[in-house]
Amino acid sequence: MGRAEFIAMMAMLMALNALAIDIMLPGLQEIGASLGIENENHRQYVVSSYVFGLGIAQLLYGPLSDRFGRRKPMLFGIGIYIICSIGIVVVPSFGALLALRFIQGAGAAATRVITVSIVRDVYGGRAMAEVMSLIMMVFMIVPIIAPGTGQLIMFAGNWHLIFLFIAIVSLAIGFWTYARLPETLDPADVRPFTVSSILDAFRIVLTNRIALCYTIASTFIFGALFGFINSAQQIYVGIYELGIWFPVAFAAVAVFMSTASFLNARFVGRFGMRRLSHGSLMGFILVTFLWLLVQVFGPQPMPVLLFLAFFSLAMFQFGWIGANFNSLAMEPLGHVAGTASSVLGFMSTVGGSIIGVVIGQAFNGTALPLVAGFFAVSIIGLIFVLIGEKGELFQPHNPRI
Q1: Which of 22, 218, 303, 370 would bridge with 325, disulfide CB 3.0–4.6 Å?
Q2: What is the pTM of this model?
Q3: Per-residue pLDDT tens for 311-350?
Q4: What is the count of structural domains for the chain?
């Protein structure tokens, strides 16, 4: 497999998660109405139930992929994802929908954990950060086009067709993976699938200061993103009354994230992960602070173009932070890459989704809870980066990273 196909495949595997979340955002209102959900904040559980399943199941896939290789657990997870997508098409109640969304997320956890493990199997240091940035750039195509695709599907029929579309796309990606993905786990790195070996790998991950602190920092930053995803439909449609233009606004912000990922891939080899991500974190804090000031003391509601400008600038910084923080956390853990990816993914996904639920459920008809949440998590993220780096920012530990 060539480098371009490798990047495209890894991006599409990771994009199955974005597809399962972003494409159905335009249909949340109809989902709630058709299944008898009166409290509009409760519609957010369609997103958060998936994310919880995604996060919790990551603890299983990492040790499995360190014992049995990357291919088999990956294909198993994709199979679960496809079956649940089809099941949701005929789901009879909101509770059953949430249950299937949880299981669907549990299947998709394989694509989150094992994709990162595969990249770490093949690349390390700045090369890994460069490849992860390119993967994220391709991956971000899905959030750009998914809400618009969901809106078009809604024009053609009802929300059930969205999940049928997800099933067809995931089936195609599953066949591609089956046909072309090689086994990347080095036989020397195979670990026994026993309780003691798993706990030992967890100990290695959780006692590494750099890995732990960057993971916690990522958790809080991702929490803000999950908070937005949970309340995006309420903000864009409820506050700003964008209606069918909601996917356009969503895509515009995703373009900024994709651009940041592309630029990160170009510059990380020259400047290093720490310089780029630390600088972006400081930029994230500044943008969200100014955003909060305008939200509190400016006109209510904030003009939609100004809201989009602040949000796009924040997400541009996020595009520099995400891939680099993940690579910095994984860098010292290559010998337990599968379990490391699962532990770090579990912490960032479950922790981030909990933070996202708190931010999303705080929605009160204004964007203030979201904006305040963005600023708060940026400060907490900086604190943990400072702990991990012993107070020193922007300093590469060696020429590779």
Answers
A1: 218
A2: 0.79
A3: 999 989 988 888 788 778 877 776 666 677 777 878 888 8
A4: 1
